[in-house]
Amino acid sequence: MLNGILGKKLGMTQVFSEAGSPMTVTVVEAGPCVVIQVKTMDVDGYQAVQVGFGHKKRLNKPEQGHLRGQGTFRYLREFRVEDASKFQVGQKVQADIFAAGDKVDVTGTSRGMGFQGGVKRYHFHGGPKTHGQSDRHRAPGSVGSTTTPGRVLKGLRMAGHMGNVRVTTQNLRIIRVEPERNLLLLEGAVPGAKNGLVEVRHARKGAKAKAKA
After folding, report:
1. How buried is 26 (Cβ within 10 angstroms: 0-12 exposed, 13-18 middle, 19+ buried)?
2. What is the pLDDT of residues 122-144, one digit of tens each?
3. How many Å apart are CA 198 and CA 187, to the nearest integer?
């Protein structure tokens, strides 16, 4: 069984537990994905399975040759496996690899916020609002030291581009699986914007806890 699957974030909604309490969930369209390439230790030096997801209108010649008529996929991603011989090109991977109650790690690209200042980006306190500081409410303050080192240190928190980075949320519980519609209902929030690509994998921390037990 593959460790994960590609999907699309559809949005958030609310469901009710058996006790009647409301729960906020994120709906993810998980697959179906198709195995495009199987990488083995002898040929590639490691074992992995490459899967395709989504639809792309046009493919260039290299993409057409790589996909070998399996489909017009927009996204290709690899998942490491322990035994690549169990997979074949053209095999379908669907949402039924998960079950309700499983813990998963979800990786996506966070929403881009554009260029933002230090107050919004890093929750800076800002400058004083009185004593003559008429225009320093949201200013970052000093960014450098004195003669030593005489420069601005690398990695200093300043204004800049915010968001649009790879983010992973760990140990999200699967509330419901609907294999006939390839839907996963995950408790809580998932990184990324609506219709954004996400990778859903079995939780690494959960697997380590089971191994120790």
Report:
1. buried
2. 999 988 888 888 888 899 888 88
3. 15
